[in-house]
Structure formats: structure tokens, C-alpha cells
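Honest question from a wet-lab person: if I give you the sequences of every part of a complex, can you actually get the arrangement of the whole thing, not just the pieces? Trying it with mine:
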Amino acid sequence: MADIELRRLVIKAFHMTDVEMGDENKITTDGKMTINNDCLPALLDKYKEVIEKIDVEIIRPGDHDRFTNTIMDIIPISVKVLGKCGEGITHTITGVYVMPTGVDVDGEQAHEFGSSEGNLKDMLYLNRAGTPGDDDFIISFNITFKKGMGQERYAVIDAYRMVEEWMNMFREQLRAFSGSKCTEKHEYYDRIREGQKKVLVIKEMIAHGAMLDTWIFPDQPSGVEGGKSLIDYGSMPVMLTPNEFRDGAIKAMN
Amino acid sequence: MGVGPSTKETSLHHFRDPLIEILENDPGIDLMGVLVFGSPEGNAEKIRCSRTAAVVAECARPDGVIVETDGWGNLDVDFVNCVNEIGERGIPVAGLNWSGTAGKFVVESPYLDNVVDFNKNPEGIESNIVGENNYTEEDVRECLKRLKIAMAKKERGIK
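Yes, you can. This is the full assembly:
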């Protein structure tokens, strides 16, 4: 029996081959990304109640023999170009991923159950689905919280909002990229395979509180704004299509 | 993310999850969707939410279910309850879970045979190395194989 295609999601990837500090925060379709930290004081000012300092650094592929504070997440920079979550077109950047890390002014690591602080080459296992590959750049977004704030749920959420606000500078440019310039194009279908074995996936995700939290349905893929914690859903089951799931509907929040 | 740094799944993991990828590319599988539920702190809530996930599964009439979690310890309570409730409803079930040596199930169920332990750490511990104890394509294939056997057994009336 034929497959019935319900809807299509196209993810277009734009690969960055060159990431360096520069005069502006910019990405180009020929794979160049520049980062400029002049924007950080204004960003920090918005979140100064809970955050003391931000340091943004570029970590080149293989250059991992360096100290890192505890790794809070690894985030792809993606943006919806057309349609709702799970359909239409999404643009994403490959070759570079954002890695928020956190510590407070007293040196207390922003973690709940086990901290990954230490030498980055020892504390980050590369080439997993959820981690950068050998050839990827990492943007280390190190957050220094005010005293004790690395353990407060609202402060940690604020930190993620701040990271997203920073990422939005690149999302805006990425949205405007001509799709024909992409380096990879993937088409995904929510489909019914009639007559085949019907399989349901159930994923249990943490919903305890600060640093042990999962958000769903953000406005932008792997984003924060517009999303809600599973805690706010009473942890009850929520059904997603495969395409919604793969379109960044889930944001890890620790 | 989940409980310890080495088992927790990052946002990037969800964005390019091998579980979804492999199920969707298998021509013998009709992937129905992804049911997400939270793991709350309280025990009564844990039982309620994980049972409701099994209820949704029953109502959707799947041929088989894969249950996965990136947490362990107290998250096993909901995980095992979910697997158990699905098993008791006569639905073939397989799973993905980190156990190693440090995170063995804290609760039991007769339906845990098809749960793949995706430990990667040589000592089986929560190493705090981000990504180390995450499931890979290989783990998903093993899990899917076990589910296919369970579904075939049910079809043929084999216990």
C-alpha cells in the first residue's frame, strides 16, 4: 500500500566553515561567521538582576584543552522561515553550536545533579547526536550568575532567554538567507505507512524544577520564548508529530 | 535535560534524534508520533503521568511502543511504571534507558526484558562527561529489533 503524506518539513542547513571574532555579528551564505562582543553590555543590562557577567568565546575544532564551567546545553541556531512548527521551511546553521556554561560569582557551578566543569577535552564527548563533531566550532557562552542564582529556577530561565536573545541576531540573518544557497537540504514527511507496524514513541523527560526542566513548543526551533515547561503542563503527556519533534519543539532547560 | 551530565539529552540531541530518524526510515514501521511526558518529583504524580501515557498508547491502538528516558534513579519509577502499564495492556513494548552499574532499576517489572541499556562508560557510571551516556543509532537499532521480535511473537500467539 502507498504511503499517505500528511505534511512536509524542509530543513535547509547552512554550513559555517570559518568562525572568528570580527567587527559585527554576522553570518554569510559562503560559510563565514563573525562575532563581536560589543553587544554584550546592553544584553547584560537587561538581565543584571540575576547575571553578573557574560563571556562569549569561539572554541576552534580540536582546541578543547581548556577549562570549562558546567555545560548547560548544546544548542543549534535554527529559525522558522515558513509555516508552523513541524511543517514548512526551517533554516539551521551547521558547523557551529552554542554552548551555554554557568557558574556563580562564588564559583558555585550551575548544576543540579553532577557538574561537567573541568577540562573541556575530558568533559565533552564529541560526535554524539547531541554534541558537536570533531570539525565543529563551539561558541562558549559563559554565564556568571549573581550569588546563588545558578540554583534558582527563574534565574536559570532568564539565562536561557538571554542566550536566545543573543542567538536572535543570527536567526534574523539566517531567516533571510536564500534557500538555494543551502549546503544541505532535508525533506521530512509526517506520513501514514498503511499496512505497516504502527509504533508509538514515548519519551519521559525531566520536569523537577531548576536545572532539571524541559520546555516544549517554543516560537523558534530549540528556543525558549513562547515555550512552556512540562511542569506547567502538569507533566501530563503531550502528543507531537515526528516532524514537530524534529523541528526543535523540545528545549532542554538545564 | 535528564539527571546527570553524561545521560542528559541536549537541545541538539532532540533536534537530530536518532530514534525518530531510524523509525521513520524503516519501511516496515508506521511511526505514529512522539508522546512526551514529564517526570515530576512526587511519587503519586509520577505514577499518574506515566500511567496516563500508557492510557494514551492503549487508546491509539499501536502495534508496539518504545519508551525512552534520559534520566535514571527516581526517573526509573515513572519509566518502569510506564513500561509495566503498557505491558499489562498486552501491547508489545521495548525501551531505551541508562543503567550501567550505577543506575540499575530501583523498581521491577516483568516487562523490562526488551529495555536496552545504553550505557557507554567503561565502568558503568555517571561520568559527568556530556554526551557520553547518550543512546546512539546502534542502541536504537537493537531496541527496534527487540520490539519487532515482540510484535511478531504477539502476532503468532507466542508468549
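Two things worth pointing out. Helices of chain A lie at 40-46, 120-123, 153-176, 242-246. Chain A has one domain: 3-194.
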